[in-house]
Amino acid sequence: MALTKEEAIKRARADLAKRLGINESEITESRVEQTEFPDLALGAPEEDELSGQMITTGWRIELSAHGHKYEYRADRNQLRLYNFKGANYRI
Question: What is the pLDDT of residue 37?
């Protein structure tokens, strides 16, 4: 099933709340924008992951919690957490 922008935001909020051990109500959406990523990994490959080099349209989702900002990247097929504690994660 293809992800919609709204579903990607919902899943990102749930994932961040779980990672931080907080309530989703403590997370705010700072910014959500449509953008193009440089590859099929949305510019956020996991360690040792190879991905196709093809421009991919998706959404950059910026969430805030307790004074920190977190970036998720999504397209219709996947959701990724970008540079969380120095690493990327496929959700």
Answer: 96
How far is it, in rounded angstroms, from Cα 54 to Cα 33?
20
- Whose CA is closest to 61, among 12, 20, 25, 15? 12
**Please, is 18 exposed, middle or buried when counting C-beta atoms within 10 Å of its C-beta (0-12, 13-18, 19+)?**
exposed
Structural domain harbouring 54:
5-90
What element of type H or E holds 14? helix 5-20
Residue 42: phi, psi to the nearest 5?
60, 30
| H-helix or E-strand spanning residue 27 | none
Give me Rg for the CA atoms of the chain.
Answer: 13
Would you call 59 helix, strand, or coil by DSSP? strand
Kindly state the average pLDDT of the residues 60-84.
96
pTM assigned to the model: 0.90
- Split into its structural domains, the chain has a count of 1
